[in-house]
Design goal:
It comes from Triticum aestivum. It is found in: Membrane. Its main location: membrane. One of its GO terms (cellular component) is membrane. Keywords: Leucine-rich repeat, Membrane, Repeat, Signal, Transmembrane, Transmembrane helix. This protein has 512 residues and is mainly β. The chain folds into three domains: 179 residues, Galactose-binding domain-like (Jelly Rolls), CATH 2.60.120; 154 residues, Sandwich (Jelly Rolls); 153 residues, Ribonuclease Inhibitor (Leucine-rich repeat, LRR (right-handed beta-alpha superhelix), Alpha-Beta Horseshoe). 4% of the residues lie in helices and 39% in strands. It is built from three helices and 38 strands. Strands 1, 2, 3, 4, 8, 11, 14, 15, 16, 20, 23 and 26 form a twelve-stranded mixed beta sheet that branches. Strands 27-30-32-34-36-38 form a six-stranded mixed beta sheet. A hairpin with a 3-residue loop joins strand 28 and strand 29.
């Protein structure tokens, strides 16, 4: 194991903290969610899949009538409505300060139209756009994988409706969230970065994808057949000797160059955007108790030079710049030709900012005191850009703050939490024409409030005199409630204030 550069990376797979039951579980805590399923099932590998219903509040289940499915998690999906810039989220309890592998599976089934295209969002960070059109034509499922740090006691994974893509709502078939061992990918700085999987390859393999139970985290190692250079062998490589715990079997196949010739690979097999990438390569001499020296270049830059033994070796770089098509060239520095067993490439992308904690907690408290709220009120209230909660407007300045709440005519009931007064950057509040009951909180801390519309609800109690001390207040609409007592004189006499107290209330002054 030899680090070459400093840390960072991009890829994701989600894990749940579910109790053990019938069926196998992955190493560590994990969530294995069969989206849209009515009951649990067990796949051909013995892994148990559970319904996603307890972790999501939106969308509807849809069965897929496709014959011959080998994976039971593809027999149903959860479809979400098309609502511009809405994000529909799963909220999964996790262990803070740990990192998680998120793998998402999408299988739209037979269709005569292009499947929906939509955004993936994790804890307020835009990850990537999902486009399954090519896989649908091939009749196969699409998998997206990434590694994210937990940023709190809940990990939120969201599907975002982006009107720039298509005019149909997002969907998902399966969601895995897997807690990784502390050693796995630990060279990456997850305080500011996440990793998105580009390729994970088992060179020389002509078989199926290698995954659980061979890989204890159910990572998918795709075969890379090349009959001219493929070699199989049996090793006793100990996976625990490697920081990211690869399955030992990846060392049992290899691509080996011809004698006195380099080994040249185009890998990964797609063109890459210019950026930083995490690259990890795995080597083990195919001959027992043997070694060979080789030189590895990626796009004409030396990646590694050293000796490979039958005990195995992993070499990684955490910020390797790649662009376009990538060539990996291995040349011999000894009698035996060069070889390679496996490799991983992740794209590295920055973790996005979040709404300041004070505002996020206030919004969660407000949400708990209300009923019939929009189904996209989950995840970060403001982020990522363009995906604030319905009715919420935010300022994305030095600190991300909630500045406006416009929930007029949404059919909301319940009461107003006093914690709404902690949203000290608010300039506008409107809950007009809903079914709110209870009293009006004290808004004394909202020193920037300009408009307060609480009319046409079922509010009772009195109006606090402190409301009249908020200097910027210019509109106050309270009519159509069941308020009583006297309207404070500092409101009746406030210069520049447009107010409506009647009809519908029981004030002693003014008369209503």
């Amino acid at each position: 194991m030899r680090p070459l550069l400093s840390a960072a990376a991009a890829a994701a797979v989600l894990l749940l903290l579910l109790p053990l039951a019938a069926g196998q579980r992955l190493r560590g805590f994990s969530y294995q969610l069969d989206c849209g399923a009515a009951s649990s099932s067990t796949d051909s590998r013995g892994l148990r899949w559970d319904p996603d219903g307890p972790y999501v509040s939106a969308g509807s289940a849809r069965p897929l009538s496709v014959q011959g499915l080998l994976d039971p998690a593809l027999a149903s999906l959860r479809a979400f409505p098309y609502r511009t810039n809405a994000k529909f989220c799963y909220a999964l309890p996790v262990d803070p300060n740990r990192r998680y592998l998120l793998r998402l599976t999408f299988f739209y089934g037979p269709t005569s139209t292009a499947p929906p295209v939509f955004d993936l969002i994790v804890d307020g960070t835009f990850w990537t756009a999902v486009d399954t059109a090519d896989d649908v034509l091939a009749g196969s499922a699409s998998h997206y994988e990434a590694v994210f740090p937990a940023r709190g006691r809940n990990l939120t994974f969201c599907l975002g409706v982006n009107p720039d893509y298509t005019k149909s709502g997002p969907f998902i078939n399966a969601l895995q969230v897997i807690q990784l061992h502390d050693s796995v990918y630990n060279a990456t700085d997850f305080t500011g970065s996440a990793m998105g999987l580009i390729a994970r390859t088992k060179f020389g393999s002509i078989g199926d994808v290698e995954r659980y139970p061979d890989d204890s985290f159910d990572r998918y190692w795709q075969p890379f057949p090349d009959r001219k250079h493929a070699v199989s062998s049996t090793h006793n490589v100990t996976s625990a000797d490697f920081w990211n715990l690869p399955p030992p079997d990846v060392f049992n196949t290899a691509l080996v160059a011809e004698q006195n010739s380099p080994l040249v690979l185009q890998w990964p097999p797609i063109s890459l955007q210019n950026g930083s990438y995490y690259v990890s390569l795995y080597f083990a001499d195919t001959l027992a108790n043997s070694s060979r020296t080789l030189d590895v270049n990626i796009n004409d830059y030396q990646f590694y030079e050293g000796t490979v033994t039958s005990a195995g070796l992993s070499v990684f770089a955490t910020q390797w710049i790649l662009s376009g098509l990538t060539r990996v060239i291995l040349t011999s520095k000894s009698v035996l030709p060069p070889l390679i067993n496996a490799g991983e490439v992740f794209g590295i992308f920055p973790i996005g900012r979040l709404t300041i904690t004070r505002d996020a907690l206030a919004m969660e408290s407000m949400k708990r005191s209300l009923q019939n709220i929009p189904d996209d009120w989950i995840g970060d209230p403001c982020m990522p850009h363009g995906y604030a909660w319905t009715g919420v407007t935010c300022d994305e300045g030095q600190n991300i703050r909630v500045i406006s709440l416009n929930f007029s005519s949404m059919g909301i009931s319940g009461s107003l939490s006093p914690d709404i007064a902690n949203l000290t950057a608010l300039t506008d509040i409107s809950f007009a024409n809903n079914s709110l009951s209870g009293t009006i909180p004290d808004f004394i801390n909202l020193g920037k409030l300009q408009r307060l519309h609480l009319n046409d609800n079922k509010l009772n109690g009195t109006i606090a005199q402190t409301l009249g001390t908020i200097q910027p207040l210019r509109e106050l609409f309270l009519q159509g409630n069941d308020l009583g007592g006297a309207v404070p004189q500092n409101l009746l006499n406030k210069t520049g204030l447009t107010s409506k107290f009647c009809p519908g209330n029981q004030f002693t002054q003014p008369q209503c």
